[in-house]
Amino acid sequence: MLFAALIERLRIWRRERETLAELRRLTARDLFDIGINPADVRSIAREAARA
């Protein structure tokens, strides 16, 4: 059970990092066009990874 929880946490962390990297590749203008404030990128990546 502990091992499974650790693996899941690592998967979430990896998805968060991937999403964060993708969002950081966008310009501020691109982010605004899709309705994302650049200051919210980290929290959005965190939420997306847990979804």
Overview in brief:
The protein is 76% helix and 0% strand. The protein is mainly alpha-helical. The protein has one domain.
> How many alpha or pi helices?
3
What's the main sheet like?
A: none
How much helicity do the residues have?
Answer: over 70%
What is the overall pLDDT average?
Answer: 96
* Shape by Cα distribution: elongated
What do these coordinates show?
The chain is mainly alpha-helical. It has one domain. 76% of the residues lie in helices and 0% in strands. It contains three helices and no strands. The radius of gyration is 13 Å and the shape is elongated.
Please give a handful of descriptors for the protein shown.
51 residues, 3 helices, 76% helix, single chain, mainly alpha
Topology record:
Blueprint: H1 2-24, H2 28-33, H3 41-50
Helix pairs in contact: 1-3
Domain YjiS-like: 6-42
InterPro entries: YjiS-like (IPR009506)
